[in-house]
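Hi support team,

I'm filing this because I wasn't sure whether my run with flavin-adenine dinucleotide finished correctly. The job status page said complete, but I'd like someone to confirm that the output block is well-formed before I use it downstream. Pasting the exact inputs I used:
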Amino acid sequence: MVGSVDRETDILIIGGGPGGLACAQELARAGREVLLLERKAEIGPKVCAGGITWSGLLQHVPEQLIQQAFPCQHIRTPEQHAQVRADQPIIATVDRRELGQWMAAEAEAAGARLLAGTRVRSIAADHLLARTGEQETCTIGFRQLIGADGANSLVRRSLGLSSRLMGVGLNANLPLVREQMEWHLNPALFRHGYAWIFPHGRTLSIGAYVDRAAMPLARLKANLISWARQQQITIPPEQLRAGLVNYDYQGHHFANRWLVGEAAGLASGLTGEGIYPAIVSGRAVARLILDKTYPADELTRMIRKQHRHHRVIAWAGRTPRLCGLLMNLLVLLLRIKVLDFRMLEMAD
Ligand SMILES: Cc1cc2nc3c(=O)[nH]c(=O)nc-3n(C[C@H](O)[C@H](O)[C@H](O)COP(=O)(O)OP(=O)(O)OC[C@H]3O[C@@H](n4cnc5c(N)ncnc54)[C@H](O)[C@@H]3O)c2cc1C
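And here is everything the job wrote out:
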């Protein structure tokens, strides 16, 4: 190691999103020394629609985190409307701040140390430079480094990995009450992406997601605002927040560096779902660090699911006409119950 080190730790995690927090909890619970650095002053808040699925996370978070739960999903194209029903909620909504705070408390209770307001500036082989809120720079040494730093991951870039497969999402949280959870597939406006209305109790999340290669952000924004108007919802443009979704998975283990969640490109390119993949990969990487022979079957299954989503994107991205046909076929198959809604989810 070069120069003086202010602090040393066995395992250093960059990023306090669901991936980093899940990983920190699992490692700390096994008695390992874990330090997690988060650049934001507060752990949790993130541009997100806050949708979690029954087969994924919904059954594993405390009830008080659930803002609204939906046993019925409404999926629309300009031509048709499918209603998918189940006995239990298919999707529920959570507030990302509350989810993050709960996961942070669980990780700390397990023994992990979390430092918010600390941004990592550069990474070397066995140490990094981080800056705290007071603009002080410190050097932290590590044996293992985990990049859980999201779609624009510094750890990923330090490994020289590209991020070609990216989605982009726009979201606004508005003080409006709605009962239905809605997905709108409209290739003329959103290509092979979609727009959503996800109620959160006394507010709702409204937004749209597309493949970054399919449409410039300014066009997506204009299309979303005019589509929302047709739904009798006015989105003040300044309320819209944009975020990237990295689905370019190229591996998760590189000598003493690991990637989890979106830093690893583990989100769905089709739907933009990334909370559950971040948690699954965070836990799997922790287990692999604890036991090199851990089979990580859950990670393998999720990567397989992600590839299936890639194939749908590749077909739908060929021509606008094919995209329209595929979207309508998808909704028809959901409507007549030939296709299970879970095919669109990242969980099994
Ligand atoms: C508009 C939109 C809507 C979405 N809706 C949903 C949804 O409904 N359901 C769903 O499952 N997914 C959704 N997603 C995706 C989901 O938000 C992400 O996939 C998920 O948060 C990824 O978790 P993560 O832990 O990998 O990364 P993140 O949650 O992005 O966490 C990374 C953390 O690292 C921190 N960080 C980054 N760089 C540094 C640094 N240099 N130093 C220190 N800290 C750093 C960041 O501040 C951040 O807190 C949506 C995404 C977008 C853009």
